[in-house]
From TrEMBL, chain A:
<feature type="domain" description="Pyruvate flavodoxin/ferredoxin oxidoreductase pyrimidine binding">
    <location>
        <begin position="14"/>
        <end position="233"/>
    </location>
</feature>
<dbReference type="Pfam" id="PF01855">
    <property type="entry name" value="POR_N"/>
</dbReference>
<dbReference type="InterPro" id="IPR029061">
    <property type="entry name" value="THDP-binding"/>
</dbReference>
<dbReference type="GO" id="GO:0019752">
    <property type="term" value="P:carboxylic acid metabolic process"/>
</dbReference>
<dbReference type="InterPro" id="IPR050722">
    <property type="entry name" value="Pyruvate:ferred/Flavod_OxRd"/>
</dbReference>
<dbReference type="GO" id="GO:0006979">
    <property type="term" value="P:response to oxidative stress"/>
</dbReference>
<dbReference type="InterPro" id="IPR033412">
    <property type="entry name" value="PFOR_II"/>
</dbReference>
TrEMBL record, chain B:
<dbReference type="Pfam" id="PF14697">
    <property type="entry name" value="Fer4_21"/>
</dbReference>
<protein>
    <submittedName>
        <fullName>2-ketoisovalerate ferredoxin oxidoreductase</fullName>
        <ecNumber>1.2.7.7</ecNumber>
    </submittedName>
</protein>
<dbReference type="InterPro" id="IPR017896">
    <property type="entry name" value="4Fe4S_Fe-S-bd"/>
</dbReference>
<feature type="region of interest" description="Disordered">
    <location>
        <begin position="1"/>
        <end position="22"/>
    </location>
</feature>
<dbReference type="GO" id="GO:0051539">
    <property type="term" value="F:4 iron, 4 sulfur cluster binding"/>
</dbReference>
<keyword id="KW-0677">Repeat</keyword>
<feature type="domain" description="4Fe-4S ferredoxin-type">
    <location>
        <begin position="37"/>
        <end position="66"/>
    </location>
</feature>
TrEMBL record, chain C:
<dbReference type="InterPro" id="IPR019752">
    <property type="entry name" value="Pyrv/ketoisovalerate_OxRed_cat"/>
</dbReference>
<dbReference type="GO" id="GO:0016625">
    <property type="term" value="F:oxidoreductase activity, acting on the aldehyde or oxo group of donors, iron-sulfur protein as acceptor"/>
</dbReference>
<protein>
    <submittedName>
        <fullName>Pyruvate ferredoxin oxidoreductase</fullName>
    </submittedName>
</protein>
<keyword id="KW-0670">Pyruvate</keyword>
<keyword id="KW-0560">Oxidoreductase</keyword>
<dbReference type="InterPro" id="IPR051626">
    <property type="entry name" value="Oxidoreductase_gamma_subunit"/>
</dbReference>
<dbReference type="InterPro" id="IPR011894">
    <property type="entry name" value="PorC_KorC"/>
</dbReference>
Length: 385, 99, 187
């Protein structure tokens, strides 16, 4: 059924359709509406889940870890400072190999105090061992929650489903909300191999000596590698069932493109309008949207970029002291690859919710097209000097 | 992935569980081997306050019933001496293990 | 694609109006987007709500800077902000006012003006108080009549979805505005 809903509520519906069994969350703008709706759903019996109010995000994740470890399908959501506060627990969830799904509304970090979007909150959690999915519209948000559980429960790693503050969280659009019976066919109940069980007592997370710690880390990396395949497989199956296919990346008019724009989240969505416009003007440009950032789609990036004339990356984030983070990762993916390496232009735009309009994206593309190579590793777009 | 053998040997990642969890119950982990001093209760002096039972960090002291002095489980007692320290009538003695 | 910008004041229901409008248009198979000006809405302060309606999927996710049409929920805004800023030439300005479209001669030079006394309709239907009438649903009736972006039946569904409290009175207000809206001359 098509419903006009906010991105935040697309998350709530995704959790409802996944039949999550526990929700522990602490409200933070612009995520509040997610858990507000979920608390309504649990209160009116629509969703059979235990909703736990906690006193902080650290506790939210701690509680979610506990319920997931005991075998429940567990959900939570946060944003920005909240995600930062649960950082320790993010490591714990991934290290304990728990298939938790969490929505993070991408909001810039304070100070200066802000509630608007950029990606530095989730990208600061790059190395904790969570998968990260960057969504471009509300439909993808809802679908990615369901897909998140499907993939996480196979590879035993948590998934962070990420949506832009306001641009998705508080924007309503038509979303196809699938029937729960159909989702049931796609997503069976969670049956963990190991869980906290009084009939099979174990100790969890105990002291791990240098003898075996590294092996656990090796296994996490193996799981990430496997996740690349599982994400693609399940994305295909989801497409067969629901008519919407998802992969690690999305290519838009890349086939004969000389210049490839790389972007993520809603910037990538808006960029499609710019690609169309520039194509109409006869320019061979295309878009590579990075949907899954962890595990990083190294092979796909190399395949798509190899032999192009130019690569342009737009980052709504920055690693201080280095460059935009997607730019850095794309470059790194390329270094050991065979073949032609096109010059790469790394632009930073839209920090703290500054609007990334079609005009901004077009100016970036035109700037890169007219230059032979970038004059510096960071090209700031629109910063007022 | 349930092992009930007393002696679990791990080669490497391939025979380890995904999550850092013990392969079975901690009952398999007989911590008695850590002990060099052994607590011995003088039952004649014991006032059955069960303070030692409450304090033992490894739950290695078994409660029998209210009228019986508690029993130390020497498979798991690691010899930390907390029970002897806490006993109000000092009826637990830490004695040297025989080697 | 049609881009509509609603000017209102915090608390008047401009955001809800945009949502109900988007929902109504989507019922007929249109692609829609509805969002507020991102930030903190304060009662009484000028707010904007944006609506996109299109036959094709909508990929652009930035704010609307050059709307095809604007809606003014509160006539006092006409004195405090430039409601025509960025408005495309020939676009409609739909104003909640007791005045007739002909009295907006300055606007009429470049745009088309429609007016409706949504405040009176809201008060008559007991929507909000006399001092602070909730005019958002009344104006919706005027919008769909002037811009022809949704049917009355679909608007009814949209209102029920996003303004469920006093839905019947709100729908009645929308229908009254639909009938009463006055359209100025085509520019
Ligand atoms: S010595 Fe320590 S481990 Fe042993 S019984 Fe006493 S308190 Fe428990
Ligand atoms: S603490 Fe001492 S007195 Fe009390 S029960 Fe234990 S051995 Fe007996």
């Amino acid at each position: 059924m098509k419903k006009v809903i906010l991105g935040d509520h697309a998350v709530s519906y995704g959790a409802l359709l996944s039949r999550v069994q526990t929700i522990a969350a602490y409200p933070i703008t612009p995520q509040t509406l997610i858990v507000e709706r979920l608390s309504e759903m649990t209160a009116n019996g629509e969703l059979k889940a235990i909703f736990t109010k906690v006193e902080s995000e650290h506790s939210a994740m701690a509680s979610t870890i506990g319920s997931s470890a005991s075998g429940a399908r567990a959900f939570t959501a946060t944003s920005a400072q909240g995600l930062a506060l649960m950082h320790e627990m993010l490591h714990w969830a991934a290290g304990a190999r728990l298939p938790i799904v969490m929505a993070n509304v991408n909001r810039a970090m304070a100070p200066g105090w802000t509630i608007w979007t950029d990606q530095n909150d989730s990208l600061s959690a790059r190395d904790v061992g969570w998968m990260q999915i960057y969504c471009q519209d509300n439909q993808e948000v809802l679908d990615s929650i369901i897909l998140g559980y499907k993939v996480s429960e196979q590879v035993n790693l948590p998934t962070m489903v990420i949506l832009d503050a306001f641009v998705l969280s508080h924007t309503a659009e038509g979303v196809d909300v699938p029937d729960i019976e159909d989702v049931d066919k796609f997503l069976p109940p969670y049956k963990p191999e190991i869980k906290m069980d009084i009939n099979d007592p174990r100790s969890f997370g105990a002291l791990t000596s240098p003898d075996v710690y590294m092996e656990f880390r090796y296994k996490m990396q193996q799981a990430m590698d496997k996740a690349k395949e599982v994400i693609v497989e399940e994305g295909k199956k989801f497409g067969d069932m629901f008519g919407r296919k998802y992969g690690l990346v999305e290519e838009y008019k890349t086939e004969d493109a000389d210049t490839i724009l790389i972007a993520s989240a809603t910037v990538a969505s808006t960029a499609k309008a710019v690609i169309d416009e520039m194509r109409e003007a006869g320019l061979k440009v295309g878009l590579l949207r990075i949907r899954v950032f962890r595990p990083f789609p190294t092979e796909e990036v190399i395949r798509v970029l190899n032999g192009r004339k130019k690569v342009v990356v737009i980052d709504r984030n920055i690693s201080f002291g280095k460059t935009g983070i997607f730019f850095d990762e794309v470059k790194g993916a390329f270094y050991n690859s065979e073949g032609n390496k096109p010059p790469m232009f790394g632009y930073i735009a839209g920090l703290g919710g500054r609007d990334v309009t079609p005009k901004v994206i077009k100016e970036i593309m035109e700037d890169a097209i007219k230059k032979d190579k970038p004059e510096s590793e960071i090209l700031w777009k629109g910063v007022k000097l | 992935m349930k092992h009930d053998d007393k002696d679990i040997k791990i080669k490497g990642a391939s025979d380890m569980p995904e999550m850092p969890a013990s392969l079975g119950s901690m009952a398999h982990n007989k911590t008695a081997s850590w002990r060099n001093l052994k607590p011995v209760i003088d039952e004649s002096k014991c006032i059955k306050c069960f303070i030692c039972w409450k304090f033992c960090p490894d739950a290695a002291i078994d409660f029998i019933d209210e009228n019986t002095p508690p029993k130390i489980n020497y498979d798991y007692c690691k010899g930390c001496g907390i029970c002897a320290h806490e006993c109000p009538v000092k009826c637990i003695e830490m004695v040297e293990e025989e080697r | 694609m049609i881009e509509i910008l609603i000017h209102g004041r915090g608390g008047q229901g401009g955001v809800k109006a945009s949502l109900a409008l988007a929902s109504a248009a989507s019922k007929a198979g249109k692609y829609v987007q509805s969002f507020p000006e991102f930030g903190v809405e304060r009662r009484g302060a000028p707010i904007k709500a944006f609506t996109r309606i299109s036959d094709d999927p909508i990929v652009v996710r930035s704010k609307i800077y050059n709307p095809d049409h604007v809606v003014v929920l509160d006539p006092t805004l006409l004195h405090s902000i430039d409601v025509t800023e960025g408005l495309k030439e020939g676009g409609w300005i739909i104003i909640n006012t007791e005045k007739s479209p002909d009295s907006f001669t300055e606007f009429a030079k470049r745009f088309k003006v429609a007016t409706v006394n949504a405040t009176k309709i809201a008060v008559d239907n007991n929507l909000g108080s006399k001092a602070a009438p909730i005019v958002n649903t009344a104006i919706l009736g005027a919008i769909i009549r002037v811009l022809n972006v949704a049917s009355k039946e679909d608007l009814e569904k949209g209102i029920k979805e996003f303004v469920p409290v006093k839905a019947e009175a709100n729908i009645k207000a929308a229908y009254e505005a639909y009938d009463q809206v006055k359209l100025g001359k085509e520019a």
